[in-house]
Design brief:
Protein name: Protoheme IX farnesyltransferase
Enzyme class: transferase
CATH architecture of the largest domain: Orthogonal Bundle
Structural class: mainly alpha
Largest sheet: none
Number of helices: 17
Shape: flat
Pfam family, one: UbiA
Oligomer: single chain
Distance between the termini: 74 Å
Strand content: under 5%
CATH superfamily of the largest domain: UbiA prenyltransferase
Number of domains: 2
Number of strands: 0
Radius of gyration: 21 Å
Organism: Neorhizobium galegae bv. orientalis str. HAMBI 540
CATH class of the largest domain: Mainly Alpha
EC number: 2.5.1.141
CATH topology of the largest domain: Tetracycline Repressor, domain 2
Length: about 325
């Protein structure tokens, strides 16, 4: 069965019946692991932004961003159900596994998209709502429907969708963007290729089986590994930049530099890995570390902001 045949089969049930999907199945459509990263970086953007936001509005902001991210995930799973059914990594997702019908996932994703954007606009501000709407559109349409299946630069360009959440959190407080919020965006944007290509290296057969032009399949392993080093270096450099703009202090800068050095070392280890290595342990280790790295960078920014406020708190008490 070809990819298109499989897509037709998945969508051939029509709208005459509903599945017996559980709440857990619909929750899985939201890509909760990805959502957790989105929520955390959006929260960081909201906390790091200058000014104040009512705590209730802050909670609403994060919830709307989380729902918008989940909506993007549902729309992605709806469109990619044909290739998800073939790839071993995704074959057990709700749609290819037959637990949720494609039209249900589409309706679910569209409903959540509209809900998240409208509520954020009405409750917080329309700039942040517009940015959330653009992020959903970018991930669901620009990346999923266009870039993913047409160019090996899919992750490089499409990575912007995952980099917007801290900017949205920032905009919820300030009603706009700034150099510092752009730096938060760039940290994730530049981190994404090295992170995802590490996964693509040990999932080459999966992507090759469905014709998705991931960099290792198109440019080869050696070229991909070289590019991973470049992006790891760029990420390490830009992650230290908040120290120089005043967003974070020297302690954060040292912390980020150490984490970045390890990130670069991991990418070099991947470069030294022989092409065709079946175990792919360096790539798997880099993929795992890259997730820890991003959480640690944003945790460091939050800790720096918290510690910076301690002297003022003590001064008020004394």
């Amino acid at each position: 069965m070809t990819v298109m045949d499989n897509h037709d089969a998945l969508g051939s049930d029509g709208g005459s019946r509903l599945s017996e999907a559980s709440a857990r199945d619909f929750f899985e459509l939201l890509k909760p692991r990805v959502m957790s990263l989105v929520v955390f970086t959006a929260f960081a953007g909201l906390i790091l932004a200058p000014g104040h936001i009512n705590p209730v509005l802050g909670v609403i902001s994060i919830l709307c961003i989380a729902v918008g991210a989940g909506a993007s995930g549902a729309l992605n799973m709806w469109y990619d159900a044909d290739i998800d059914a073939i790839m071993t990594r995704t074959a057990k997702r709700p749609i290819p596994a037959g637990r949720i019908l494609p039209q249900e996932a589409l309706a679910f994703g569209l409903t959540l998209s509209v809900f998240s954007v409208v509520i954020l606009g009405l409750a917080v501000n329309w700039f942040s709502a517009g940015l959330l709407a653009f992020t959903i559109f970018f991930y669901a349409v620009v990346y999923t429907m266009w870039l993913k299946r047409s160019t090996p630069q899919n992750i490089v360009i499409g990575g912007a969708s995952g980099a917007f959440p801290p900017m949205i959190g920032w905009a919820c407080v300030t009603g706009g963007v700034s150099l510092d919020s752009i730096l938060l965006f760039l940290i994730i944007f530049l981190w994404t290729p090295a992170h995802f290509w590490a996964l693509a290296l040990f999932k080459m057969r999966d992507y090759g089986s469905v014709g998705v032009p991931m960099m290792p399949n198109v440019a080869g392993e050696a070229s991909t590994k070289n590019q991973m080093i470049v992006y790891a270096v760029l990420t390490a450099v830009i992650a230290v930049a908040p120290t120089f703009t005043g967003l974070a202090g020297l302690g954060y800068g040292i912390f980020a530099a150490v984490l970045g050095a390890i990130f670069i070392i991991c990418s070099i280890a991947v470069r030294r890995m022989p092409d065709g290595d079946e175990k792919m342990m360096p790539a798997k280790k880099m993929f795992a570390y890259s997730i820890i790295y991003l959480f640690a960078i944003f945790s460091g920014l939050l800790a720096d902001r918290l510690l910076a406020g301690v002297p003022h708190l003590l001064g008020g008490l004394l």
